[in-house]
Design a protein that fits this description.
Arc Repressor Mutant, subunit A, Serine Threonine Protein Phosphatase 5, Tetratricopeptide repeat, 2 domains, about 60% helix, about 10% strand, elongated, disordered N terminus
């Protein structure tokens, strides 16, 4: 077994968004102490897939991309050793930390708190709470998801897996914004609802859910003309870029606002 258990009260916290950091019992390992850029990449790579092991070939691709080091075996061993040493300085020692078995590497504590996992879980809870009309829980969880994913992920690195992870995190961030928009609008905080939905739509202009949410926020604020303008901009974009109209659902929101007293 690669994975090992620690008491829940002693779980490390792994921050991958923003500055990559490991925290354990009030002590920190910063980016600078992880072994440079490659150490940061290795920790983030294992942290984003910590429920599964990674082979040496996967480690090479995740850390070095197409630029395979001259002696891959030595390079990996050195990098893992540096990372383990950094984790030991805050009390995460063998068999925890970076576990190895049969040439497979894994972040050794499956129950550790990881910020990007917390963001996804919080978003699920936020959307579930919103469906149940629990606005307080929806707001609290969406704020957690949004605060985490608003931060940059591995700035200055553009490896394929990094780019893919950024796409995932950006989607979580936009969905969190839409929950915040709906909650704000229902609470009568119309400007805040408009702001959140507008930010989501600006980030992804083809997001029809964001378009619908922004239309509803403007309509709830009593500005039906602006709500209809949002739809008109969406329709123009879709026709010019995709040669199609927005979905029937988006059109239905438009007609609902258009016909409202």
């Amino acid at each position: 077994m690669l994975a090992t258990d620690l008491p829940e009260t002693a779980l490390p916290r792994l921050y991958l968004c923003g500055r990559v950091t490991v925290e354990y019992r009030g002590r920190l390992v910063s980016e600078r102490e992880l072994g440079g850029r490659q150490g940061r990449l290795l920790l983030a790579f294992l942290g984003t897939r910590r429920t599964q092991g990674s082979s040496k070939a996967e480690i090479i691709e995740g850390v070095w991309g197409s630029r395979t080091p001259p002696s891959a075996e030595t390079a990996i061993n050195s990098l893992v050793s540096k990372l383990r040493s950094a984790l030991r300085t805050i009390g995460i020692a063998s068999p925890h930390g970076i576990a190895t078995a049969a040439g497979v590497y894994q972040f050794g504590i499956p129950a550790a708190w990881v910020d990007i996992e917390c963001a996804r879980t919080s978003l699920d809870r936020a959307e579930g709470a919103l469906r149940n009309d629990d606005l307080c829980a929806a707001w609290a969880n969406a704020n957690v998801a949004g605060a985490i994913t608003r931060q940059a992920f591995l700035v200055d690195d553009d490896l394929p897996w990094v780019a893919q992870q950024r796409v995932i995190l950006a989607r979580v961030w936009r969905r969190a914004l839409l929950v915040l928009s709906v909650v704000s609008t229902r609470n009568g905080e119309f400007e805040l609802g408009i702001q959140h939905a507008s930010e989501a739509l600006t980030a992804e202009p083809f997001d029809e859910i964001a378009c619908q949410t922004l239309m509803r926020a403007h309509a709830a604020a009593g500005n039906r003309a602006e709500a209809l303008r949002v739809y008109a901009s969406c329709r123009t974009l879709f026709r010019e870029e995709l040669g199609a109209d927005p979905s029937e659902r988006t059109q239905a929101v438009f007609l609902e606002i258009l016909r409202a007293d």
